[in-house]
Here is the input.
Amino acid sequence: MLPTIRILASKPAARHLCSTCGLLTPLRRVASVIHVSPVAPPPLPSASTEAMAAVRKNTVKRGPRRAALTLTASAVSRLRQLYANPSDPKLLKIGTKKKGCSGQTYSLEYVTHPSKLDEVIEQDGVKVLIDSKALFSLVGSEMDYVEDKLSSQFVFHNPNVKEMCGCGMSFMT
Here is the structure.
């Protein structure tokens, strides 16, 4: 008899003083409580070979999956400039790091070849890698390149972000 586990989460805290910028920002903290119940789940019915074959036959075939990350035209253009030197082959690897008051920040680094678990994104002839640990946080994001009079940077439009620090340096998914 296996125990059943339920996880309960607390409500978000009101405000938090950002260690990076010194602003009061909303911050959600989740306190987990695990309750172990001695009640076992009902036993699974055994399936016959014919029933399993019928399930496989009626399975819906899915089309190609959605890209984990899309690149804007300006991001593709800038990446082509960065990759222009053929004597120095490199790829841009996107990941996340634990940093800031909201928990995570984006990290960009050059690598010469992808690791075994990296997700390879290719769009308009440009390849970008996503670290396997950051993939869940980045799915559905858009990477843009923005240039103004004072700075130029890659900007991520991430639909998975639930909260951001007041200074914009860190986020929570």
